[in-house]
Design goal:
Helix content is 47%, strand content 13%. The protein has helices at 12-23, 40-53, 70-80, 94-99, 101-121, 156-175; strands at residues 3-7, 27-32, 60-64, 84-87, 126-129. Strands 3-2-1-4-5 form a five-stranded parallel sheet, with helices on both faces. The two termini are 21 Å apart.
Length: 180
């Protein structure tokens, strides 16, 4: 049984990931700020489904917090000493990022930095990061391949996700952080 921090736990992908992890016997600490980019009521319903599917109620704990809250993220990592961090939380949406690019950088890059820093301070658990195919920009390679150039994102959202990928690479290089 592994202890996993799952960011974005209330979203569609996050709640399904939590259910899969619980189904295989892992303990999951879910984090989500329940913002209103998607309907908060839907996110709460997703969390309720996760709780119902947990074989043991002690296997799933949810914390309503923002990944930009450095102290809260650090405290969770210090308390739980996770085996893995699955980082799905993000401000999504190419078009919306054009209207508020600072928010996208704060959440997607700053939040990832907080998680990487906490990981570094508390045992360097395996770090799995969800990026976006938008990092490839206007590529001619369809379907996308990982070796394709990803250095010309076309909006703040993919730029923030690509910057977070590069930050993960830096933490691997500097500290040996396993970053996938």
């Amino acid at each position: 049984m592994k202890k996993i921090l799952l960011t974005g736990a209330a979203g569609f992908i996050g709640s399904n990931t939590a259910s899969a992890l619980l189904g295989r016997g892992d303990r999951v600490v879910g984090v989500d700020n329940l913002n209103d980019y998607y309907a908060p009521a839907r996110k709460l319903a997703n969390l309720e489904q996760v709780r119902k599917l947990a074989p043991d109620p002690r296997q799933f704990h949810f914390h309503r917090t923002d990944i930009r809250n450095e102290e809260a993220i650090d405290a969770l990592c210090a308390e739980h000493r996770f085996d893995a961090i699955i980082h799905l939380a993000a401000m999504a949406g190419v078009r919306a990022s054009i209207e508020d690019p600072k928010l996208y950088m704060d959440v997607n890059l700053g939040g990832t930095l907080n998680l990487l820093q906490a990981s570094h301070r508390h045992g360097q658990p395996t770090f799995v990061f969800a990026s976006t195919s938008s990092v490839y920009g206007r590529t001619k390679m369809i379907p996308f391949i990982e070796s394709d150039c990803a250095d010309r994102p076309l909006a703040p959202y993919p730029a923030s996700k690509r910057a977070a990928e590069l930050l993960g690479h830096s933490y691997y290089h500097l500290f040996g952080q396993d970053f996938t």
